[in-house]
Amino acid sequence: MAVTKWPFRVWQVNKATADLDDLRHQPYSNTTSTPIEHTEPGTDNCQHPDIMSPPTADWIQLHDRFYRKQEIYSMLWKQVDLSKYMIAAAPFGGPLALVRDDRKVLLLQKQQPIKPSIYLYTSSGKLMETISWDKGHIVGMGWTETEQLLCVLEDGTVRMYNILGEYTQFSLGKEAKDNRVIDVQFWGAGLVALTGSFQLIAITNFDEPRPLFLADPNINEPPHSWAVIPPKFTLSRHVEVLIAHNSTILVVDATEARDERLQQGPFSKMSISPDGKYLALFTSDGKLWVVSTDFQKNLSEFATRSQVPPQQLVWCGTDSVVLYWDKIVLMVGPYGDWIKYTYDDAIFLVPEIDGVRVISTDKCEFLQKVPDATENIFKIGSTAPAAMLYDALDHFEKKSPKADENIRSIRLELSDAVEACIEAAGHEISHHYQRSLLKAASFGKSFLEIHNADSFVEMCKILRVLNAVRYYEIGIPMTYTQYQRLSPEALIDRLISRHQYLLAIRICEYLKMRTDRILIHWACSKIKKSNDDEDTICRMVVEKLANKPGLSYSEIAMTAHKAGQSKLATMLLDYEPRAGDQVPLLMSMQEDELALVKAIESGDTDLVYHVILHLKRKLPLGEFFRIINNKPLACNLLESYCKQQDPELLKDFYYQDDRRVDSANLTLMESFRQKDSTERINKIKAALRLYQDDKEHTFEAKAIEDSIKLLQAQVQLERDYSQPFSGLSISSTVYKLITINQSNRATKIRSDFKMPDKRFWWIKLRALVEIRDWDGVATLAKSKKSPIGYEPFVEECVKAMQFREAAKYILKCDAHLRAGLFLKIEAYQEAGEQAFLQKDLDTLREIRDKCPNVVIQGQIDGYISQLASSR
User: Is 70 exceeded by the pLDDT of residue 272?
Assistant: First the structure.
């Protein structure tokens, strides 16, 4: 029938009511590479499932359950004989890959190339890409969970193609190359290859494909059949391989090959259920045997009466097994019931998690168990609440009073009936029944005082999306169950890989998802394929992405760089909002100075350090300093880093920038770290020369000269007295000499360095007190008039608790200080006398209070009375 292609427009759903007539098939066409441009399609003839026939017309009962086979598409390809091709189909309504089977004779059609090619088709038979093939014999093809086509060759080479024919490749290693690959099995995240020496090689991660040898199965002939259990379904969480050998099955993993010791074999075909729980086996005597994958449960056995093994053995969901012989499809249920379908031409079965896609020359069909919600509503004679609600709507539209009777009869289950109608709508491919079921749900909830409409609104959105991707030009016949398992994000990724940017954007906007990755992919594709100049491409990309603030340009710029368009990459990076993404890419593009500028502009010191250290490792020293010099922040950070980590680099930096004082300071700091005195002197002399070159730093130069002179003297002192002197100041050197009874040498040092008398007397006094040389202290005090006075003599003796020695020098101190000094050494009588002579009543009272001697207290009281009466 003719199907009109409606343009996609966002359908806003109100939670209270929904315009059900707007729930329709939403085709897209995106023949251009921009996400904004859209070519409105015309009409075309294509078989479509929206046919006004009873929903049970294609149902067939298998024991107590119903199955249905629905036609989804009339194939767009022309007269493709599937029997002549090796075929691989991606799950979740994914594409088909066909390559001529070189073991079979194929009659070439007109204009058909002699060279073999891989043809990629949608499920509707629309050609997506043709890949010229000249590599060698393909042992097997499979699809990854991200819709990457895997082609495994005899020599162990694995090519991984995207839907547009771009590929990467890796090898299965020397074993595969030497002994050839004879068979291969795939799962969504990996593969297992069987070599000519009957060794198993696994790849469990396509991002980092590393060949992993499984345990040796110890077989000397090809297995009758074999299958792979993905890691997510095994207890060990590692891939397991089931090998049919003789009459038994070997279970092989990375560590061992275990014989299950079965007697029912040989098994010519085997297939693992989508949930990894069950194993279907076809025996040599024509029996279909179903067991659990741990071989603990024998579930069913069915005699097909055919000694010829089927061409395909697949699961229909997890409920039944489908076998295909030439032009015959046999579906066997869990209780031994069966259904047979016949075809005029060869077909190909694609197992899905909830059914089987049947691909034939002229159509694509979907065979599945009728969902419970659908069966409860449409089964003849059903009295389920959802069926009563659906009938109530029909009576209501006919203005029949039975509508009210139906609603009253299910009043208590009405909410469940509404939810069942919503769920059943999701499982329908027909737009007519989608609408009628949702209409029934809407009708039912109008009788409910309280009902959450979220599920209704959500289902409307999901159906809108599913109808759009099911459209024959898109060709993804995804079911509601598959959509729930896959997730909207993964569906968007599939549309992006097909370059269906407009549809992907509209769906994201409709589902309130971010569109960044779509726009980035579009921009990258535009760069790869456009023949425009770099300025034009940059302008085009920026204009399209201008209304997306915060969108990262780094991936787009990297694509431009890899495509050899460095100027374009640099221009695009100017729009990158995150310096953390921008700067590393500039560095990889050899735009070193620009990377440093951007890092500085970001204000992120860690990022600036990252660039500086990268430049230091990469560039010659002169070029490195040239880039750094005119950037103050970079210079400051480099200095800070070098002071802690790389003094030699800092020295070179100062030298090339003619910063002599900084170089001198650095050299001086280095001298302090030298343990050898000679080395230290040499370093200080080097610093002196740098200071002498700058006339503004004569003071520093003179100080360093004195430092060298002192250090040389200290070296000599160390030799003479075997005592450490290096690193001491002049004062400390003099002090130490006095403490080791070398006063004459101390006097010479004092003279050589012109130490002031006051400082020398202070140092000598403290040194003599330190060594308790009281005669020396007395000699010093008598030598000449003290330049520091005599109070320090008293104070130092008091600190040493030598009150008698201190008393010797108090009378030499100024008269007004004597009373206080005598009080410090607890000479209360002398303190009182000196206070009386100074007529100091306050000090007398203080002495009176502190004095413990009653006699002396009386004397002091007398002094106080005399002074008080004289006033």
Answer: yes
